[in-house]
């Protein structure tokens, strides 16, 4: 039985819930690092603004396809002229799967099959 202002014999007084707003955190939780993508050599996507020996190889291969890379310059820079040549190659040979003017896996496979040494 309950009496006003008293407590029931045999029961514990109510316990207040902890205040989560002032509870101290256990410390920062470290998130796992995302896996590093391993890109096989020779399959890196090349796009406008890139430069280097892989771009030079792309320029050289495109210059072997008649009327695709009309500039024919091999300087290792992925500029507007090279972007247009890659887009032209993609259009003429019906390549799908890569962004227009970007030398991705689908474009690479097709170009390399046409210009293998």
Automatic annotation (TrEMBL):
Residues 51-109 form the Peptidoglycan binding-like domain. Residues 9-30 have a biased composition (Low complexity). It holds the Pfam family PG_binding_1. Gene3D superfamilies: PGBD-like superfamily/PGBD. Residues 1-55 are annotated as: Disordered. This is Peptidoglycan-binding protein.
